[in-house]
Design a protein that fits this description.
The complex is a heterodimer. By secondary structure, chain A is of the alpha+beta class. In chain A, 47% of the residues lie in helices and 13% in strands. Chain A folds into 3 domains: 122 residues, no CATH class; 115 residues, no CATH class; 166 residues, no CATH class. Chain A is elongated and about 100 Å long. The two termini of chain A are 48 Å apart. By secondary structure, chain B is mostly helical. In chain B, 73% of the residues lie in helices and 0% in strands. The chains are: A alpha+beta, B mainly alpha. Chains A and B meet through helix 10 and helix 15 of A and helix 4, helix 5 and helix 11 of B.
Chain lengths: 485, 336
């Protein structure tokens, strides 16, 4: 059965036939619970999805009041009575077709259908098991809040609302995914967001015809440019405080039910180097840390390739002592420098992947085996030289200083390594040109990814090249629209 | 074509000029710097009518097609000449392409640079201009490092030695040959965001500084070996070592290659735009066609003296004569 076969079908007024139709559509699914009862002299049925709602709430808020309806009513009067006289729950949507009925039912609502009624009443009594609010795993900070997004979209909305109490914060829920029927939410500050940006994002989302939306990766390609981009022009965050700061700057956020990350549009390159802690420390220290991050990014991408290029083709760049150390260590290694470096970096990626996917106790063992046994044995046996291992380790660790860019950094590191190994600094320069143009071409909805560096915006540099104090920044009233081209 | 900011416009053109300057062959002296700077002042003066032409709503697209054809051919030839400069200079700089022994080194360098230029020009002039701004900043830092580290090696008597110069007018002519990017200047000036004259002034100020500082530094640092060096600017960069125990001239290769790629890409994007103007039906593979034409012309021009007076005349034609004809044609059109 296809979704469109039932989605817009009106609800059947005959209760028996209605229940048969519901069972037919659901394929007799075991988690669909149907409780038939008589209320106000009318045959009714309360539908719910097992495990999705709170038994205590449904007993106290739905069954008890319904059982106390004593006077005889017709179907319409009964529904009117329930809606106007009984306060069964705050959230009481009405379903007029089977599509809405099933979407509310499978979202944890209790759905009431009655004999002679072509609508269904839904009651928000969700009570499914969920992960509690905890510290974000990927965006830890020292001085800021320790709350991260969770998998429930409404909880995430509340986390944002708690921080932005302004009535200008708009959250709009909508449903995407033909099969998953996933709740999504678009958030923005209506007094800050560029209207054109908002409309364009809405248009992009309208084009999305997915069967399911299970992670941010499903949605991001639809709100990004179609051409090949090394860096993503949309960002994600799992911190409500970070998201609030982006919303205040006029950006748009997308929340997806079941995903503890929010998509932020547009995203700039320099933002990957900014953390909430930067604004908690003194400006001079934050500026220092920021430059450390920029340096770490360059080291992560270029250090192995520069080492290979210099050691192989341009040894005059090294001073004599360093050169002698390299010559001595490389003399014992049986493989060429480039092969050695590629081997080490690929091996590291394999170990990293194994460490992530394995259960945590075993993951620790992988680290021990890889770090102590393989690494030590490879150096001792002379398969890999110590300087190369040091360089690779430095590059890899530097890559983790900006975790968001790590996938791109990994690929760039390998690309530059091959270019440097084959053509020395000439190859690195050529690839650098291509990468630079690619970064500069990254742009979504008219917001260049490289702003405020290029196109140069002097005002933006106070939170890019340095981090000025809040006394200066507070007067800005900055919105992302300043970067629009 | 999208509009570019004043800074991006200057960056796009200064990169081309810097690359041409780095590839400069023959002797340099303080007279060279004087000749070049005078040339830049003259270029600014002759660009004023073009700036006014654009300010008053004139466009190259609305001008008769032969003008666009002229600039298309001119820019393709200038792109070819940039390739020739690259080939000549690559003999001085270590480009490890010899390992591909089956193919001549020149072909490998050209091929790789052409492929990179093709990629760099494919996203269009908007991305290129943003990248050019970053590249120009990087180039400025590198030039500053070279100039500062050249100071301890410099001698005032080298600057005073005028024996290796061919005279002021010869240097003026040579300065015009290095200003082949004026063709792109004329085309791109119509796409600047601010006042065209302001954009032109910004560019020529930057160019004057570049054309004064670099030859003067080269003359002061490499003056003693000027007679035996083919590429004085590259030699000066090689002599300017900031560290006592290690050489950094290979790092000059990085900035040299990056400037080469962007200089040729700027010509490719501009020529590609002109191609779309003169042959609107030519929609796909325009950049490829332009690059192919550039490399083809490079092979044709590789044996010719690149500092010939003919090239100076061509630059003057592109910078002064043709724009003047464009202005007159616009006036005539208004009258009719």
């Amino acid at each position: 059965m296809r979704t469109e076969d039932y989605y817009y079908s009106p609800i059947i007024t005959d209760l028996k036939k209605n229940l048969e139709e519901i069972k037919r559509i659901s394929g007799g699914s075991t988690d669909l619970m149907i409780n038939e009862f008589v209320c106000g002299g009318i045959d009714c049925a309360l539908l719910c999805c097992e495990g999705m709602l709170s038994t205590q709430t449904i007993t106290e808020l739905i069954f008890e009041p319904l059982m106390h309806v004593e006077k005889k009513l017709n179907s319409h009067e009964l529904f009117k009575h329930i809606r106007t006289k009984l306060l069964l729950s705050i959230d009481q949507p009405v379903a007029e077709n089977y599509g809405t009925l099933f979407r509310t039912l499978n979202s944890g609502f209790a759905v009431l259908i009655a004999e002679g009624m072509n609508i269904a009443l839904a009651f928000g009594v969700q009570g499914f098991a969920m992960r509690g609010i905890s510290e974000p795993s990927g965006e830890a900070n020292i001085m800021g809040a320790h709350e991260g997004f969770v998998e429930v979209i409404r909880t995430n909305i509340s986390l944002i609302r708690r921080r932005l109490k302004s009535p200008f914060l708009v959250t709009k829920l909508f449903v995407k995914g033909d099969k998953s029927q996933t709740d999504m939410c678009i958030c923005y500050m209506q007094d800050r967001v560029p209207e054109k940006l908002l409309n364009q994002i809405k248009e992009s989302l309208d084009e999305m015809e997915l069967e399911s939306v299970l992670s941010t990766g499903y949605v991001r390609p639809f709100v990004e440019k179609r051409s090949f981009e090394l860096f993503s022009s949309t960002g994600t965050t799992e911190r409500p405080d970070v998201l609030c700061s982006k919303l205040i700057e006029g950006r748009v956020a997308l929340l997806i039910d079941g995903v503890p990350f929010a998509i932020v549009i547009p995203r700039l390159f320099c933002e990957s180097f900014q953390t909430l802690d930067d604004y908690a420390f003194k400006p001079y220290y934050s500026t220092f840390i920021r430059w450390i991050k920029y340096a770490a990014f360059i080291i992560a991408v270029l250090l192995p390739s520069l080492y290979i290029a210099v050691a192989t083709y341009h040894p005059e760049l090294l001073n004599s002592t360093l050169l002698m150390i390299l010559v001595e260590s490389e003399a014992k290694a049986p493989l060429s420098l480039m092969t050695e470096a590629l081997g080490v970096l690929l091996m590291y990626e394999i170990i990293r992947e194994a460490g992530i996917r394995l259960p945590k106790p075993v993951g620790g063992a992988v680290s021990i085996v890889s770090g102590l046994i393989i690494g030590d044995a490879a150096v001792q046996s002379g398969l890999i030289s110590t300087p190369l291992l040091t360089i690779s380790a430095l590059a890899v660790i530097s890559g983790y200083v900006v975790p968001e860019l790590n996938p791109t950094v990994t690929m760039l590191r390998l690309g530059f390594l091959v270019a440097g190994g084959l053509l020395g600094l000439f190859g690195i320069s050529l690839l650098a040109c291509a990468v630079l143009v690619n970064i500069c071409a990254t742009e979504d909805y008219g917001f260049p990814y490289t702003a405020p560096l290029s196109p140069f915006k002097k005002g933006g540099m106070r939170d890019t090249a340095v981090r000025t104090g809040f006394r200066r920044m507070q007067s800005g009233g900055f919105t992302v629209e300043e970067y629009h081209e | 074509m999208n509009r570019v900011s004043c800074g991006q416009f200057a960056a796009l053109l200064l990169i081309t000029d810097a690359f041409a300057l780095f590839c400069l062959m023959g002797n340099v002296s303080i007279i060279t710097a004087c000749g070049f700077v005078t040339g830049v002042i003259l270029q600014f003066l002759i660009s004023i009518p073009t700036a006014n032409f654009y300010k008053n709503g004139g466009t190259l697209k609305s001008s008769p097609k032969p003008f666009a054809w002229f600039y298309l051919i001119y820019i393709v030839l200038w792109g070819g000449l940039l390739f020739v400069m690259l080939w000549n200079a690559s003999e001085e700089i270590t480009i490890p392409a010899e390992k591909f022994s089956l193919i001549p080194e020149k072909f490998i360098i050209t091929g790789l640079i052409a492929v990179t230029c093709l990629y760099a020009s494919s996203p269009g002039e908007k991305a290129l201009s943003r990248a050019a701004l970053i590249t120009a900043a990087l180039g400025a830092v590198c030039i500053a490092v070279i100039v500062i580290s050249a100071i301890p090696k410099s001698r005032v008597e080298y600057l005073a030695d005028l024996s290796c110069s061919d005279g002021f007018f010869s240097e003026l002519s040579r300065g015009f040959v290095l200003s082949g990017g004026l063709g792109s200047f004329i085309v791109l000036l119509g796409f600047t965001k601010g006042t065209p004259l302001k954009s032109a002034a910004g560019y020529f100020i930057g160019k004057a500084v570049l054309f004064a500082v670099v030859p003067a530094t080269a003359a002061a640092a490499a003056g003693g070996i000027m007679e035996i060096t083919d590429f004085p600017i590259i030699t000066a960069a090689e002599l300017s070592q900031p560290f006592s125990s290690q050489r950094i001239d290979s790092l000059f290769l990085i900035i040299f290659v990056i400037l080469a790629v962007f200089a040729i890409s700027v010509q490719t994007v501009t020529a590609s735009y002109l191609l779309s103007t003169v042959i609107p039906s030519f929609k796909r593979f325009r950049s490829t066609a332009v690059l192919a034409a550039m490399t083809g012309s490079a092979f044709l021009m590789s044996g010719i003296n690149q500092y010939s007076v003919i090239y100076s005349i061509a630059v003057v034609m592109a910078a002064a004569v043709v724009p003047l004809l464009m202005v007159l044609s616009k006036r005539a059109e208004r009258r009719t």
